[in-house]
Amino acid sequence: MKKLLCSIAILSSSILIAQVPFNPVSNSTMTIKGELKTIGNSIVGLNETLNGVTYTPNENYNGPRSNNQRTFGYIDIDNDSSTFSSSSANLNLSSGCERIAYAGLYWAASYFVDREGPNGNFIKYFDLPLPDSRPDFRTLKFKPPGETYITITPAQTQVIYNGYRNTPTNTENRAKSDIPYVCYADVTEIVKGLSTPDGTYTVADMRASTGFSGYNSNGISGGWILVVAYEDPMSSTKHISTEQGYIDIAPGDAPQTFTYSGFQTSPAPEPVNARYAIATLGGDRPYSGDIFQVEKPDGTLQDVFTTPANPVGNFFDSSISVNGSYVTSRNPASQNTLGFDADIFDISNPSNTVIGNDQNFVRFVTTSSGDAYSVFFSSFQVEVIEPQLMITERVLDVNGTNITGDQVNFGDQLFYEFTIENQGNEDIINASIRNILPANVDFIQGTIITSEPNIIATYNEIDREIMIAIDDDLLMKNKEIYTARFAVSVVANCTDLRDACSNEIINSAVYTYSGLASGITKTGEVLGKDACGFESINTSNTLINNNICSQVQSVSICPGSSLTLITDGGFSNYKWVDLSNPETIVGTGQSLDVSKAGTYSVYKSDNLDCRESKEIFEVTSYDAMVINQIISQEDKSVEISITGGTAPYIYELLDTSTSIVIIPAQASNTFILDITGNYTVHVQDANGCKAIHSFVFVEKIEDEENNKIVNNAEEFKIYPNPSSDIINVNTKVTSIKIYDRMGKLLIETTENTYNIANLRDGIYFVKILTKDKKEIITKIVKK
């Protein structure tokens, strides 16, 4: 329960004037489709015999008397022996579609206890005991319809004004006349929590003076008022605000004003409808001169009055009324409460002459020429200009049946339909809707349908969004209702889920629009509507998938390689096992690298309320490829033969020493080579599996050709050739240089014997310079 505010108010006199400036009440200023209502009752009544007629507090009193020099007792109508005072009033919000926005409870009374003088007929104001010894007026009991009493405690209460001596609101050593108080409690959460706000509200154990009112007071009075602001989609849009304080108005005092702002009334020629509520202590029925007025746009003052209650010249007349009629739905239902006044009424505004169009403040004035009263509460509500674009969304099946909130299954087709209507009192411009598709559905191309060609809807595949733009001409006041719809399909099965941790399909849409006259721009989320027209939660459906999502996938792995198994995301926990050894967890992430065939299972779950999912991967191995080569020196060809794998094959030839591609990928398995060397062949089969094989090709060397190379050095010899390490030259040399087949110098020596073990296998050229200045070039094979 919100903190309660208690305001101690003191009935004013011509000697001591009490003032607490009026200020807005927290949480009570709002602009809503709805209304503010008040109910209330008195808590004390006549308890004496006058002119042969006996009056008791629980009876209705409709006579003309004042509360001066009268005897009072507590009203107590609840038939509950545990309470010493109680009265009730009924609240009727009428439509059945209300939603409480705010509720505040006020209670106020004169509260003197100590008396003095002959027979104790005078109220004591001086030398009152400190601390205050009176029973605490900050606590009472509050009973909503169908409930038991709820105690409002001092700890839940703030004091606004206390007329007792030496208080924060009366620092003087003398108590204010009648020692009144006014208390306030925010009871919004209490009233919101009721199954229905309509019914009888009772206030009990409220404190006030009782007995003889004394010869030196303004009389005994007291009562309570419940203020309720509520939303109703069928109502007009209103600016509502309440204020509280404590202001004494005595005959001849300067006028007191109450100003409200923060709104803008409807533009011409719309009518301006306004309503006011006010509550006071004092204001006796027999005494006139109390005036309530409103300042007109031209600065003049217009009397405000109703009939039969609150007539002109005696506005504060100890009545509880609605639009000038006495409220009878309370117990007791006195027309004359003897000093407690609570009224709510329409402000007569012919042709908007009292409150004008496009007006953004209003001022009310109270004066008195013959009666004293103290105002502690007021409220103003007025219809205002505000853009109101009503956008509703619902989900339909293929037959056009509304299935919003229903269960759907994999593969179902859904239609999202928007209804668009200007329900405000001004034209609307720049209206658009941005619809973000749920994760687990796919847009169906070609399904966008609008009721007007000037409603343009387009789909953005990258962002998975549908933008709907509504032409300004369609959203003028009092235009018709328009629709826009499109279709989606739920994913086919659980493995297609983009968000596997949610079984809700929630469509999200955001609107934005502006009022042409007011300039107000509104942005918000498009929600569903309940039976009353209130916005509810997003339009959603529940995906039926109660079992663990289990799916088997078959994949294959290439021999000697690895494979990454990837499952869907969106989970917090993953557990991978090799089913050949299911007790051992082999992975805990979204993916698992495997290098052998087998059956692997992953169990997925979430720390949130996410259903489990299970996925099985059956991994088989492709046939291994075995490569052989057939070398023909006669035609310089190398033919590659494959055993295993899956045809067709792709072949690629590289220089083993440099990894340079000599013959790029080809479908032929035959390579033509001109140069002796080390070669590597890469083979890839139809499954993408690869195999590698290296070989040495030695071209055929004719004796005649070799002799040409060595310049007829018949007696020259390098041995052994081929060699794996040591080579020998059988002639005296000046230098020996060994080159690779690309012409790069690798070795230079002057020795006849050299170790070539560090060279890679392959063909090399040897250039020898002999002692007799002959140059010999030949080939050697290292293997």
Fold topology:
Layout (H helix, E strand, L loop, with lengths): L18 E6 L5 E13 L1 E3 L1 E3 L2 E3 L15 E4 L11 E6 L7 E12 L4 E2 L5 E2 L16 E4 L6 E3 L27 E7 L1 H5 L6 E6 L6 E2 L9 E10 L5 E13 L6 E6 L12 E9 L7 E6 L5 E3 L16 E3 L2 E2 L3 E2 L8 E7 L14 E8 L4 E11 L5 E8 L10 E2 L4 E10 L5 E9 L4 E3 L5 E2 L4 E6 L4 E6 L11 E9 L13 E3 L1 E8 L5 E5 L14 E4 L5 E9 L5 E4 L6 E6 L6 E3 L3 E4 L3 E8 L7 E9 L4 E7 L4 E7 L6 E6 L5 E6 L3 E3 L4 E8 L5 E8 L5 H7 L8 E2 L6 E4 L3 E7 L5 E5 L3 E3 L6 E9 L4 E8 L1
Parallel strand pairs: 22-25, 29-40, 41-47
Antiparallel strand pairs: 1-17, 2-16, 2-17, 3-6, 4-5, 6-15, 7-14, 7-24, 8-13, 8-16, 9-10, 11-12, 11-14, 17-27, 18-26, 19-25, 19-27, 20-21, 20-26, 22-23, 28-30, 30-36, 31-35, 31-38, 32-36, 33-36, 34-35, 37-40, 38-39, 42-45, 43-44, 43-46, 46-47, 48-49, 49-52, 50-51, 50-53, 53-54, 55-56, 56-59, ...
Description:
- The model is unreliable at 1-16 and 701-714 (pLDDT under 50).
- By secondary structure, the protein is mainly beta.
- The protein is built from two helices and 61 strands.
- It is 2% helix and 46% strand.
- The protein is elongated, with a radius of gyration of 49 Å.
- Strands 1, 2, 8, 13, 16, 17, 19, 22, 23, 25 and 27 form an eleven-stranded mixed sheet that branches.
